[in-house]
Structure to design on (588 residues):
């Protein structure tokens, strides 16, 4: 075998499959977004940036954009701070740690479809698990219409956060295990208080884990589609829609392929800007490894 | 007794180690509080699962009369078996889609990861960067053209279309994992093979594939779960119910039973069992895979 050709032969299957069914479609989406294509039967005509101009004034889209913003903020804070707390607590527990870990990791095995269906039942008015729980605890006053127009977005986020917390806990626990115990011991010997040790040693050393947890939260918040679809179908009256869901609806419900593609492009650009720091870090690490 | 001795033995050390007097006095309270908080969080975390299991094995009158959190007045295991029978076509479809997708992903990504990790060639770092970046490409930018392409190829509503698409979607992540894994394999293995005059393919097949077993098991568990749990491709690429995966099945199941929450919960339990079993049986592999440079979840 030719030495210069060999690597590419090994890469060929991956490049071919991704090229045809993954990369080529990405370019096509950009192209379709500049047309007024409706349905799959015939290509639309070129209309330039008209779809994007329409989007700026599309109330439904703007509402979904606002909701995606709420998703991003909530997802950065809630699952990650919960997970870091859980990871620190689990790390200090010696008995039953295996079982407790399993409880926290379990949601990772569940699909968003199932999480959506199950949490739909949890939020059901009156008979649902949450209302019943609050009534049982004498906290009836806290009950709201969980999947009503006011609260739906937050309720869906809470369900998704349940799953995201599981992932972040895995990541932070791995991060904590990677911190050499001697370092902590040494700091204790030197008279460091618990708080000092946490903020000056533990937290900075969790930086790699945090990068992973944060980028994962960002991506899941930006792309949240499946769970919105299964829990609320964007409702009531479109109040809980997110951009990813809007894209799906415009395309496969309203058959406005060109318009849907434009939303797809926007979702992609938003994701791209968010992951640049992460990709850069990976590249640097790899270059160090290989040089 | 043993407790006492260890305490006494470690006493002087303790005095050195444990920081201020205040911290030492707070210690037992802190421990108690920590354990209490952890158990509370675990309980809250587990409630959705527990509630679903309870709901699945009850009758509707039982739920409305005694409340959703009461113990079942009678255990209706028939709900689950009924849900299983109805879910069977979807479960079958999910198996037919998932297994070849996982196998295909592994083969393709092992080869690519081997080349990226073990061979020096022009454009290597670029290739790696492209693959890292591609692992972030949202499904939304591929849905429409892939849907169109599969229709053009006459593959709409087939298992093959879903299998190809899953392999495509998983390639970037899987290649990343395999590259990172092969990076940790000592290079001498390859040199030894070379001296013996083995071809690159033989070295890969005979030396590197067997060595990769730990990475493969982690990858298999992760890929199985992710592909099994996919919903959007299953929705977009299918029409007839025979080709729809179980994630789509649970939605039509929900539509069919509407407020029969015991049946909906049963359906959810049945649909979740395969990934739950895999997860519980291979939890270690799962976690290792996730921490091998993952950003998904």
């Amino acid at each position: 075998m030719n030495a210069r050709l060999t690597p590419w032969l090994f890469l060929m299957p991956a490049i071919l499959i991704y090229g045809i069914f993954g990369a080529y479609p990405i370019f096509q989406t950009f192209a379709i977004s500049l047309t007024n294509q409706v349905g799959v039967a015939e290509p639309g005509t070129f209309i330039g940036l008209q779809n994007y101009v329409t989007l700026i004034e599309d109330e439904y889209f703007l509402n979904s954009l606002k909701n995606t913003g709420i998703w991003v903020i909530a997802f950065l804070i809630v699952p990650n701070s919960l997970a870091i707390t859980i990871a620190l607590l689990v790390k200090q527990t010696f008995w039953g740690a295996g079982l407790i870990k399993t409880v926290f990791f379990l949601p990772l095995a569940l699909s968003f479809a199932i999480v959506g269906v199950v949490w739909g039942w949890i939020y059901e008015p009156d008979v649902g698990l949450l209302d019943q729980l609050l009534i049982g605890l004498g906290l009836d006053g806290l009950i709201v219409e969980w999947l009503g127009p006011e609260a739906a977005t937050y309720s869906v986020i809470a369900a998704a956060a349940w799953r995201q917390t599981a992932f972040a806990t895995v990541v932070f626990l791995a991060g904590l295990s990677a911190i050499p115990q001697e370092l902590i011991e040494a700091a204790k010997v030197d008279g460091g208080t618990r708080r000092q040790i946490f903020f000056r040693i533990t937290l900075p050393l969790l930086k790699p884990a945090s990068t992973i947890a944060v980028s994962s939260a960002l991506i899941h918040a930006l792309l949240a589609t499946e769970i919105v679809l299964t829990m609320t179908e964007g409702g009531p009256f479109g109040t809980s829609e997110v951009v990813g869901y809007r894209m799906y609806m415009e395309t496969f419900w309203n058959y406005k392929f060109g318009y849907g593609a434009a939303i797809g492009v926007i979702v992609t650009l938003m994701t791209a800007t968010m992951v640049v720091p992460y990709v850069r870090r990976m590249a640097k690490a790899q270059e160090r490894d290989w040089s | 007794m043993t407790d006492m001795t260890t305490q006494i033995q470690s006493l002087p050390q303790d005095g050195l180690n444990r920081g201020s007097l205040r911290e030492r006095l707070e210690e037992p309270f802190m421990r108690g509080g920590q354990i209490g908080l952890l158990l509370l969080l675990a309980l809250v975390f587990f409630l959705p699962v527990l509630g679903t299991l309870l709901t699945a094995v009850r009758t509707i009158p039982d739920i409305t009369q005694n409340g959703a959190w009461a113990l079942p007045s009678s255990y209706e295991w028939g709900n689950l078996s009924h849900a299983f029978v109805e879910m069977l076509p979807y479960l079958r479809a999910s198996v037919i889609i998932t297994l070849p997708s996982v196998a295909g992903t592994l083969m393709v990504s092992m080869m690519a990861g081997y080349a990226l990790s073990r061979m020096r060639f022009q454009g290597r770092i670029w290739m790696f960067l492209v693959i890292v970046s591609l692992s972030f490409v949202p499904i939304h930018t591929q849905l429409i053209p892939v849907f169109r392409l599969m229709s053009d190829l006459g593959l709409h509503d087939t298992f093959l279309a879903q299998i190809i698409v899953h392999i495509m979607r998983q390639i970037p992540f899987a290649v990343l994992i395999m590259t990172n894994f092969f990076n940790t394999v000592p290079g001498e293995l390859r040199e030894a093979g070379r001296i013996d005059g083995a071809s690159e393919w033989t070295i890969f097949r005979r030396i590197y594939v067997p060595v990769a077993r730990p990475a493969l098991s982690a990858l298999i568990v992760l890929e199985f779960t992710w592909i099994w749990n996919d919903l959007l491709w299953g929705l977009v690429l299918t029409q007839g119910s025979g080709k729809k995966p179980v994630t789509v099945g649970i939605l039509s199941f929900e539509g069919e039973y509407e407020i029969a929450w015991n049946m909906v919960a049963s359906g959810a339990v049945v649909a979740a069992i395969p990934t739950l079993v895999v997860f519980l049986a291979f939890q270690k592999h799962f976690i290792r895979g996730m921490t091998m440079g993952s950003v998904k979840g």
